[in-house]
Amino acid sequence: PSIWPSLRKLWRDLARAQLTFWDGDEDEGEDEQGNEKRKQQDLRILCTSLAKFTRNLVADVPSNQNLAFENEVEIRRLLHYHSSWTANQDSESFPVTRMLTQTLSNIVTANNELMTKLWNIYLNLPEDQVVLIRLLASPDEGTVLAVMVLILNCVYENKARAYMLCKTSIGCRICVSLLDGMSRLYEAHEDSDGARAFDVGYDIFLQLTTAGLVPELYSRLLVDDEIATPHQTTLLKLVDSYLQSVTATAIVSTPAMRKINRKLCPMLSKGFFTKAVYTQHAIKRFLGEEVQRDGNPTQSPSENTGEAPPIELDVMLPKVCEALVLITQCISTITLEPEERELSPIKEQEKAASSSTLRSARSFATFREYFNETRYADNGLVETLIETLRLLDKFLPRINFGRPVSRNESSPSPTAAANVASSGTHQAQGFSYLKRDLVRLLGILCHSTRSVQDRVRKCGGIEVVMNLCVVDERNPYLREHAIFTLHNLLENNPENQQLVDGIKPMGTWGEDGVLQDVPGAVRR
After folding, report:
1. Over 142-201, what HEC string results?
2. Disulfide-capable partner of 418 in 163, 193, 386, 404 (CB 3.0 to 4.6 Å)?
3. For the domain with range 4-19+34-249, which CATH number is right: 3.30.450.180, 1.25.10.10, 3.40.50.150, 3.40.50.720?
């Protein structure tokens, strides 16, 4: 006789007994409470044993998987019960949730029909019944690992299910929980369940990246009135890690890699513009500069009266700068991939018809050309980058041997800027590497491109880069990257060379080989 009818009855009876366990227990005495505790423990043992038996019974056996799937509702109800806030306070619940999740995963793994059925059910449940979100928030790393394996199995090389994860409201909530878990598990001890869960979580987002769904997810993670959300920043970290790993291992271009990068380009360019412009406005307010209608900064009236302008620091600025660093690194990696990638033959009619601010990457021959030519609100990426660097150089005095160095005594509140930017570990992390990565990107964009070299000169970018040829502990190798960028700006460009030749820096050389700054040095 078949074992499945008896197994089905056992799952139903177990779910009923567990979910009605606390009914009518309001007036129980201490002895009764002790008995109830023992009964609860017995139910946990039974649940774990039954789940383990079912898990082993269905592994790699499609016919058994189809029969066991009839118990999915009971398994889900038991998972919901054992993943409650109260249950999570008792570590004895963790082996139960772990085994139930593994059982559910084994029931559908490698069975495409069942995975699709399960995915459609779970991503259309009422929010309070979505057990995947509850399991991802579990304090037990083993449970988190098991549920991440289940999610990975469902989206692995299946664009339809990955699309649902990014497009549906419940799917986005699951992604938010995944990103929270990734942040929480980042520093998990090596060889622990937490570290393995982090690796599986990375593989989940790798599936979304290769499916070209990251831009869609990034936009859905946006929160009203917030320029950079923590979940967007975490997603950018994963994208940056993916691009770095692909570039490190790839020798030649592949169509799949080009397709992924084409999807990322508009997201990265728009993100760069919005974060950079926000940073500019925040720094201008802090420095007391006003913005005229033509976009040129002017000093506030308080400077004329001799009164110090009020310090207004945007509390979101460190977060925005952290996101800007990640976006800049992603753009740099894409433009420095092995070999110059041809995106597609340039379609003249597409370029002519696409006069909007952010065009498709297909309109350009190379990724570098795309970022050089892309515009947002009539501003080019190169000009926006240089203006951001100019303001950052005022706002963040360089740190040399542990002390902030003010380059220009006439700059408003340099000490205050240094104190604000340096106060708190998290804030300091937000500003770290920002100037270095921006000047590095500028060097990449202008390399052997005369038109970009000329644009940099016309907007005063050469002087900005020369001022960055200094030692700054907040930006390791800033001087080296600035010198390399300056080389790229001057290469085969007589006008730029003539401009630099006309600048005569004043100062004395220090014992460390660094030219000591004086007010107005390297300024025209």
Report:
1. HHHHHHHHHHHHHHCCCHHHHHHHHHCHHHHHHHHHHHHHHHHHCCCCCCCHHHHHHHHH
2. 404
3. 1.25.10.10
